[in-house]
């Protein structure tokens, strides 16, 4: 079940430009900076920083279309399905991802819930691909410890704000 949720979350993260929602304006990535915010008491700052680094790496690997790197950031049970879904997606779209904010919503010893507000825009797409809708979105990442390392086990998109042309 976990591999399905990560694969589904990954697809939603990339394909979320396909559902109706509110609108927003493009944010220049060069003008963005953020600090880790918290809505819960952080009991282990080092663990939070490690988990946030996993999310940052995940997004960077997605942008670079580095499949092995991307898979290294998610739970192993999700590798096979995620690889299948993303290989096709990477053939169709080149996306730019910009993290706008990160908020720790929950922290436990072996699990965390981290909210990422990010902008995703298409840099290029295959001629046969459906038009990608650039957007700002809220992704809630659940991370778990797997063999002593933080891995994304689920991503749930909660809001999309489509960028007006």
Automatic annotation (TrEMBL):
<feature type="signal peptide">
    <location>
        <begin position="1"/>
        <end position="24"/>
    </location>
</feature>
<dbReference type="InterPro" id="IPR032710">
    <property type="entry name" value="NTF2-like_dom_sf"/>
</dbReference>
<keyword id="KW-0732">Signal</keyword>
<protein>
    <recommendedName>
        <fullName>SnoaL-like domain-containing protein</fullName>
    </recommendedName>
</protein>
């Amino acid at each position: 079940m976990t591999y399905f949720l990560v694969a589904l979350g990954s697809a939603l993260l990339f394909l979320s430009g396909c559902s109706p929602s509110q609108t927003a304006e493009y944010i220049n990535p060069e003008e963005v900076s953020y600090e880790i915010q918290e809505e819960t008491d952080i009991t282990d700052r080092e663990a939070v920083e490690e988990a946030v680094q996993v999310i940052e790496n995940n997004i960077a690997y997605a942008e670079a279309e580095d499949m092995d790197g991307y898979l290294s950031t998610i739970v192993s049970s999700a590798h096979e399905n995620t690889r299948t879904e993303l290989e096709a997606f990477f053939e169709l779209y080149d996306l730019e991802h910009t993290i706008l904010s990160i908020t720790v919503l929950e922290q436990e010893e072996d699990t965390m819930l981290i909210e990422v507000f990010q902008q995703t825009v298409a840099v290029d797409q295959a001629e046969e691909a459906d038009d990608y809708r650039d957007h700002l979105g809220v992704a809630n990442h659940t991370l778990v410890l797997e063999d002593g390392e933080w891995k994304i086990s689920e991503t749930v998109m909660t809001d999309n704000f489509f960028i007006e042309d």
